[in-house]
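B., you asked whether I could sanity-check this one before it goes into the benchmark set. Here's the sequence:
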Amino acid sequence: MKNDYRSNQFKELLNNLQQESWQLELIISGFAIYGLIAGYDSIDIELLKAVQKEEGFNSFMLSTLLTSMLILIIILLTHVVIRGLWIGAIGLRYVSGDIDYRNLNYSEKFTSFLKNKVGAFDHYISRLENICSTLFALAFLMIFYLISFFMVLGFFVISVNYLEGLQAISHSLQTTIETIYYALYITCITILLIDFIGAGILKKYKWTSIIYYPIYRVFSYITLSFLYRPLVYNFLDQKKARWIGILIVPVYFIVSFFSSGFGTLRSNYLDHDQSTSQQFTGKENYEDQLLKDTDMVNFASIPAKIIEKSYLPIFISYTNYMEDAVFKNDSTLLPEEDERGFGFHLSNMQSASGLVNFQVAPIDNLENQSKYLKVFDSIFELQIDSKKQVYNFNLTKNKQEQFGFETILDLKELPRGKHFLRILGPDEKKKGVFEKDTLITIPFWYYPLNSSHQNKNEILIDSTSLN
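And here's what the prediction gave me:
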């Protein structure tokens, strides 16, 4: 039969496919690179939103995905470049054949050296072919490894949520089971990681194999490794390819870390990459400067640096520590069970069409929200040039879809010129300990349009200039 791997016909088919596979490699690499680059910005936006919302688990998952995408792009681009070099070498071989060292007319020393180090041109083409095939296989192995990584974490999260939802056992027994499960799962993952980094080192010795075998079998189903296991071991039986696979991720992080330290320092005192303060106006605190989807408000924002209307809208993005501070000031708002964090929540469910929403209970918490906002008003303070302002916060979302609080200050009596908006509130010095401090200072310039409001100094200056 043609699909019998032991038949000569099937082996001949594989040999023919192997010789022509470079065309498919280039097509697949091209589509993969395009897809990775096209999807990168969307993932980056979601990561920024997750960081802003302090969603630790989502941030970790998305940052891992972004890093993997970058590594894959680098591998596939390298593959395309080397495959292009391979095609060029084959074309040159058709024109000029092998390297004729006699025609180079070099000295005997260099001729001997080049023959030993460079060798035949066909050997060079063969090495390029091996590198290309190895890189292409490595790229798709990394995709499967990434899927396995998410499967391991996903299984852990699902099982933890299941254990936390058990109602038939006592709380103390539930806590004991969760602790044992955490320790066991993390230990198994650590053992798997040791075997992965060591390229199967735990499979080489009899006593480690006995311990490792049941862990290996269980996680082969969790990670779906039974789907790509032959590819892994065919890759690992090549010594050079094995080291490339093991070292590529740590090398990427080392190179990225040290390369980020190189750059041009333009001033000994002036820093172009700092947070908004009395001396610096960062674009992340002015809404008209948020031009890209990846631009997010850093804690608080106002419409622009130059305010031309007699009122000032203010937006403060929500962070988890704010709710902790609210609970610290009013314990009556503290729920019986804190449901914050990553997990399964029916209130988050929505049908694929977006037409059906599931709610755990009717919306009857408006009274609690109103109380929540009153406490929020009391623990935060807004000042313009050290003068306390009158305000009441509301819940909102800004144009970047960031959730937070908004209010509007009256600037009618404010003189024209430069001013400072200060937001004071609880600063979490350490876990559960809050101290009131200046959280951010945002400079702005107030020049209202068609306004007859001027301070006395401006009138004097104008009258002096007329004389």
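One thing to flag: Residues 350-363, 452-467 have pLDDT under 50 and may be disordered. Otherwise nothing jumped out at me.
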